[in-house]
Amino acid sequence: MRIQFEDMVQEFKRVLVKKGFSEEDAYESAKLFAENSLDGVYSHGLNRFPRVIEYIDKGYIDVKAKAEKIDGFGALERWEGNLGMGNLNAKIAMDRAIELSRQYGVGVVALRNTNHWMRGGSYGWQAANAGCIGICWTNTMPNMPAWGAKDRRIGNNPFIMAIPRSNGQHVVVDTAMSQFSYGKIESYRLAGKQLPVVGGYDTEGNLTTDPVEIEKTWRVLPIGFWKGSGMSIAFDLIAAVLSSGLSTSEIGNNEAEYGLSQVFIAIDPKKFYSEGTTYDIIDRVLKDLKESEPAEEGGRISYPGERTLATRRYNLENGIPVVKEIWEAIKKM
Amino acid sequence: MRIQFEDMVQEFKRVLVKKGFSEEDAYESAKLFAENSLDGVYSHGLNRFPRVIEYIDKGYIDVKAKAEKIDGFGALERWEGNLGMGNLNAKIAMDRAIELSRQYGVGVVALRNTNHWMRGGSYGWQAANAGCIGICWTNTMPNMPAWGAKDRRIGNNPFIMAIPRSNGQHVVVDTAMSQFSYGKIESYRLAGKQLPVVGGYDTEGNLTTDPVEIEKTWRVLPIGFWKGSGMSIAFDLIAAVLSSGLSTSEIGNNEAEYGLSQVFIAIDPKKFYSEGTTYDIIDRVLKDLKESEPAEEGGRISYPGERTLATRRYNLENGIPVVKEIWEAIKKM
User: Fold this and answer.
1) Is the pLDDT of residue A279 over 80?
2) If both were cysteines, with which of A146, A209, A306, B310 could A194 make a disulfide (CB 3.0 to 4.6 Å apart)?
C-alpha cells in the first residue's frame, strides 16, 4: 500500500490539530514526520507517529509549548524546549543556528528539555537547504552499554553532518553511535535474518550477528567498539553542559524518553567565497569517490545522502509505502 | 630505557633549532612532540620525530612559515598554513578559535595547506585547559577504502572532542575513522598477535583480525563499517570547503602527506553559567559511567582521557619509555 506524500502530511496534520496544536505547528510537524517516511526512514515517520501521539496523551509532550531562548552570548545561545514537540523544537533551534551564522559566520544553539527529534538528518537537510554546513546531535535515554560494560548507561546519541550543494543533492551523514538501532535489530529478527555485521553480544559475552541473541542481552555494540562509546559520552556531555539540561544518565530517571539535550551548529560557508568554488570541491571529492574500485562485482559506492535522495524521488512519484494497519489506525485517530 | 620529559623537550628543541626554527617555535613544537610521548602516544611523539625531520629536509615542512589569517567573518575564520610545522599551526589555529570564543561564545578556524598535526588530542587538551569545549578534525592522505570499495580514496580523518573539568582531568576523545591506525596494525604484526577486534579485510574479501592479512590488502576497516566511511567523507568535505584547501583525494596527488585541511572549533561554556554547575553535570555523568557493571570480572570502565592522564602521571614520575635506537639517532641529529 502506498500513500502520496501530501495525503500523509494532511492526515498527520489533522490528528495533530485534534490533539491541540495550532494549524501552523501541526502542519510543520506533520511535514517533518511525512518527510521521514518519504526519505525511507519509516521508523521515524509513519511508524513512529502513534507512539508520539501516545506521548502527547500521557503529557510527556506539551502541544502548546515551544522552544524559547533563555540565555545567549554572541553566536552561542541556550534554549529551553519546555517539553514541546521534538521535531518542531529541533527545527526552531536549527533555524536559529542558521540565523546566527548569517550574523557571525557560525551559530550554536544548545537546547534542553526537548523531546525526541525523530530523524536527526532532517535538521542537516534543513541547514544544507539554507546553504549552511549543519552539525547537530542529541542525547537519548540510556540504551547502550559503555565499552567494557554490560548494563546500558550511555545513549546511542545520533550525530549529523550536512554539507550543502548547489544542486540540492546535499551530503548528509546521520549516524547513531550504536551499530544498529533497536528497530533495525527487531526488523532483522522478524525477517528471520542475521545482521550484516556484528551488532551486539550474546548471553555468553560473545559478539554476534544474531538479533535474537542480542535482544536477550540488549548489549548492543557501539560503532568502532570503544570509539563509538567514547564519542557517545562526549556528545552527551557537550549537550548537557551547553544546554544545562539532562544527561543521558539523568534521562534514564524519567518514566519515558523525554527531556533530551541537543546541540545545533550552523556554519555559513558563503561568508568566504563564491558559490562556484565551494561546490567544485565537493563535486571533485564525490567524483573521485565514485571511481572507487567496488569490493564486490557490480557494486556501487554511494556518498552519504545519495540513497536518501533516490528513495525520496521514488516515493514522491510512486507514493510512500505504508504498513496498512498503522495507516488505518492513524486515519481513525 | 626511560627519558625525563624535560630532557626530551630540550633534545627535540635542539634539533629543531638546528633545522632553522626560532627558539620559541622550536620549544613550542618540541613540547607538543614530547607531550605526545608523555601521554603514551609514542607513535606521534618520539617515534614520529625522525620522519618529521625528514619532511623538513625534503622541504615538505617550511621551518620559517606559520599559519596566518587570510579571511574572516565574525566568529568564523580561514587561515593559510603556508606548509608550516603541523603541530605549531594547529596550536595557533586552536588558540585563535579559543580567542574567538571569548568574543563570540564560539570560534571556528579552518586551516589549509598545513602539515600533519601529530596527535589531534593535543588541541583538545589545549582547548579544555583554556576552559573551552574543543572540537577539531583533520583530513589525511587517502588511507582507507570507502565502504564497499577496495582502493583507498578516503582518509582516516581523526576527530577530537574535549570537555573541560575544573580539576584538569578533562574528557578528551581522539579517534580516527579507521578502526586501527597503520602503526597499530604493524605493532600487532611485530608482536605476532591478532587484533582485538576485526580491523580490515584479507585477500579473499573477508573481515579479519590478522594484521598480516590486512597488510596484504591495506583494506582497513572504517569504524562502524559504513558509518565511519560516511563520517570520514563529511569531515573531509567540511574541512576542504571551509578552508578552501585540499581534500583527501587531492592530498593523494602530493608526493607525500602534506597540504592538509583542518577545522578547529572552541566553545566557551562559561559564557552561560557559574563553573560549579558545569562541572557538576560532568562529575555526575562520569560517576554513573563508573558504576557500570563490567562485562568481564574485575573490569574497569574508563572515561575518554582517563587512561591518558594515568599514563601522563606515571611517565612524568618515572620517565618516558623510549626505543633506544630512535632516541640515540635523535641525539646524533
Assistant:
1) no
2) A209
Q: Cell match 566553545: residue?
A: B267
- For residue B179, CA distances in Å to A197, B242, B261 come to 14, 27, 22
Give residues 202 to 241 of A whose Cβ lies within 8 Å of B: 205, 207, 219, 223-225, 227-228, 230-231, 233-238, 240-241
Examine the fold and report which residue of B221, B254, B287 is the final residue of a domain before the chain moves on. Answer: B221
Residue A147's closest CA among B297, B289, B73, B61? B289
Q: What pTM was computed for the model?
A: 0.97
Residue B232 confidence (pLDDT) above 90? yes
| Residue reference for cell 552570548 | A73
ipTM > 0.90, yes or no: yes
Place of cell 485517530: A333
> Can you give the residue range of the structural domain that contains A20?
1-58+309-333
Q: How far apart are the C-alpha atoms of B206 and B228, rounded to whole Å?
A: 18
The answer to whether the CB atoms of A241 and B74 lie below 8 A apart is: no
Q: Which of A203-207, B275-279, B320-324 has the lowest mean pLDDT?
A: B275-279
- Residue A118 DSSP one-character state: S
Q: Please give the pLDDT value at position A4.
A: 98
Same domain? A51 vs A100: no
Both B236 and B259 in one domain: the answer is yes
Residues B121 and B234 in one domain: yes
Please give the pLDDT value at position A274.
55
Q: Tens digits of per-residue pLDDT, B164-181? A: 999 999 999 999 999 999
- B298 at A interface, C-beta within 8 A: no
Helix, strand, coil distribution of chain B in percent, nearest 5 = 45, 20, 35
For the stretch A48-57, contacts whose Cβ atoms lie closer than 8 Å and that sit 24 or more positions apart, written own/partner, are A48/A118, A49/A12, A49/A15, A49/A326, A49/A330, A50/A326, A50/A329, A50/A330, A52/A85, A52/A116, A52/A118, A53/A15, A53/A19, A53/A333, A55/A115, A55/A256, A55/A258, A56/A19, A56/A20, A57/A19
